[in-house]
TrEMBL record:
Taxonomic lineage from the root: Bacteria, Bacillati, Bacillota, Clostridia, Lachnospirales
Pfam families registered for this protein in UniProt: DUF4956
Keywords from the named record: Membrane, Transmembrane, Transmembrane helix
Listed name of the protein: DUF4956 domain-containing protein
Listed transmembrane segments: 15-38, 58-88, 100-132
Record flagged with keyword Transmembrane helix: yes
Amino acid sequence: MREFIVENLTSAETISFAVIVLNNLVAMAAAFFVMLAYKVTYSGTAYSRKFNISLGAITIITTMIMSVISNNIALSLGMVGALSIIRFRTAVKDVRDAAFIFWAIAAGIGCGVSQYLLIGVGSVFLLLFLLLTKNVVSSGKQLMVVQGRPEAQNQIEAVVSGHFDGKAHLNVKNLSAASCELVYSIREGDLAKANEKNMIDIAQRLMKLEGVERVNLVEQQDDISR
């Protein structure tokens, strides 16, 4: 009985060269598909090419791991133990990025066990889901801070209101005898459309006003990372 258990734990079927090549070719195709989906569905100003390339690499690496452990129980248990002591300290800047990491891992697992149809159909449906829900997720916001002299306040408010058709929300208004500061929140989509419609950037337009000293645009993050 003991010999039977040891034999089943340590035995491993040799994977043919053709299957290895096919698994990795499909994994590479799946990797490019995940990378394309990330680029197409990403919304924000902090798009990272390095992270996108890492998604493709994760897919191929996971395929190699699954090819090694799929036919050997002992290696599977050893791999679980080895991976459990690895600590990844890289912070994920967006919750949606975690979904793409799991997608890349799932694609690699499927390619490693030659489940091509499952990965292909699942990836297509996942891409359709992300495209359909892309507009549901609110886009990021920009904070526009305008500083200048008090006499320029009315002009600033009029220009901002006209530039964005009233879609810019005034969050903070600070006035003193020597200066004024106005803080607006604007959706990234509205900011881009307004600049294109008026054929001038809002910052450049405001800086042309007499009394305006500084215009700052800052990305506003809805999620707080710790």
